[in-house]
Amino acid sequence: MKPLRVALLGCGTVGTEVVRLLDEQADDLAARVGAPLELAGVAVRRLDRAREHVAPELVTTDAMSLVTRDDVDLVVEVIGGIEPARSLILAAMKTGKSVVTANKALLAEDGATIFAAAREYGADLYYEAAVAGAIPLLRPLRESLVGDHVHKVLGIVNGTTNYILDQMDTHGASFTDALEEAQSLGYAEADPTADVEGFDAAAKAAILAQLAFHTPVTAADVHREGITEVTAADVAGAKAMDSVVKLLAICERIPDPDGRNGGRGVSVRVYPAMIPRSHPLASVREAYNAVFVEARSAGSLMFYGAGAGGAPTASAVLGDLVAVARNRVGGTRGPVEVTYAELPVLPMGETITRYYVQLDVADRSGVLAQVAELFARNGVSIQAVRQEGHGDDAQLVVVTHRAPDAALAATVEALRRLDIVREVAAVMRVESG
Ligand SMILES: NC(=O)C1=CN([C@@H]2O[C@H](COP(=O)(O)OP(=O)(O)OC[C@H]3O[C@@H](n4cnc5c(N)ncnc54)[C@H](OP(=O)(O)O)[C@@H]3O)[C@@H](O)[C@H]2O)C=CC1
Ligand SMILES: N[C@@H](CC=O)C(=O)O
Questions:
Q1: Which atom of ligand 2 is nearest to the CA of 308?
Q2: Does the interface predicted TM-score (ipTM) exceed 0.95?
Q3: Domain 4-133+311-330 grouped into CATH 3.40.50.720
Q4: Distance between CA 118 and CA 363 in Å, rounded?
């Protein structure tokens, strides 16, 4: 059968592995698709690099000419970022190509434009690699679970930050050293700020929430906190509580007291939190990711695997490439995104959370009573409290019960103003799943 011609946009960490797999598995892929997949061209930024498995004449810096060529059927976008990726994907779909992308930043910022173009031009758009690397997660949400009522998605969706936190917890590594390692292993984004400040996880959370709840959610809607403020003291504090610190992405429907089926709205948030060591997410090490999905009929599902890195991500890209190629051979189309629900994204202040608070206090009798009274005044009840040390080293560790985040944050602000509190040494949310 006539080969299907593939334009690859980007040949960095992920693109290099895509090319290798296309080359090494060419015969198997042809058998699975029903037609050979042939590389038509590779667009990059710099021509002066050696590209393994790529004939030099295929390499170009003119990505737009490549995607709009008549002899290209399938386009794989692994450049990343908003532009030129968006214009290239739109041009590809407009000129009849099927598109595979790993670009969560673009889909979370302007997914509406991309999905609308896919509908308008009847183009296939697959993006499994955009969330949680190698883990098949989006296809289960887009297809297998589309008949169910998903009410929660919770997990670790950024490999770089999980690698950093794991190295800090397990080996006492410094933040900077662990980040450098994560970069050298190909886990981090081109600008690692996206990872450590939680932008990457927030983009993934937006994509997950949109698919899970069929409602528009963009990266800007997501409450985001990264891990740059997580200190060695936080990690040690978690250890003392038999817990670990993880950067979590949480998407949930907030139940409606009136019993409306869709819920009162959705909460979509990313922040570092303490979770007990006994929780399955606590044992997710290095750059692995894990995501729980809770659905009304399916119950609780767990997805686990490599969340970042060239080869794992290329596996997800190749899976999509085979899917769009098969659709072309069979003259069919894959799933189309429909966001029919208009659920509001609720503010973080209304979200119910729990806090761990560590205070350096003046070692005075009555300190516990004053602190407890302040929590109570803000409507927050205390689940556990521990007093440690004496004199200048006295500390109070408080774990709260569940309360609206705004009330918890207001309590911490009030604690900072209390004269017996020398310093609020650590504040972190506590999640138990
Ligand atoms: N790395 C990972 O673990 C994962 C990455 N992703 C996503 O995959 C995508 C690619 O990531 P990754 O491979 O790590 O990124 P890299 O930075 O390693 O590679 C980017 C590639 O795009 C090329 N490029 C950059 N700008 C342009 C441009 N204007 N025109 C043409 N080519 C351009 C670069 O060219 P040159 O080689 O000349 O510099 C490079 O080949 C991103 O969307 C990322 O978020 C998703 C999951 C995991
Ligand atoms: N930088 C990302 C790469 C995969 O999405 C991460 O660390 O998870």
A1: 4
A2: yes
A3: yes
A4: 64
**CA atoms of 403 and 287, how far apart (whole Å):** 32
**Nearest residue CA, atom 6 of ligand 1?**
102
Full 3-state SS string of 219-248:
HHHCEECCCCCCCHHHHHHHHHCCEEEEEE
Report pLDDT digits (tens) over 355-395: 999 999 987 778 899 999 999 999 999 999 998 888 777 99
Q: Which atom of ligand 1 is nearest to the CA of 106?
A: 43
The answer to the question of whether 431 is labelled as a binding residue is no
What are the φ and ψ backbone dihedral angles of 64, each rounded to 5 degrees?
-65, -40
Domain boundaries, the chain: 4-133+311-330, 138-307, 351-430
For Cα atoms 39, 44, 46, give the angle at the middle one, nearest 5 degrees: 135
Active site residue 2: no
> Rounded to an integer, what distance in angstroms lies between the CA atom of residue 275 and that of residue 250?
13
pLDDT tens digit string along 201-222? 999 999 999 999 999 999 999 9
Contacts of 239 (CB under 8 A, 6+ apart): 169
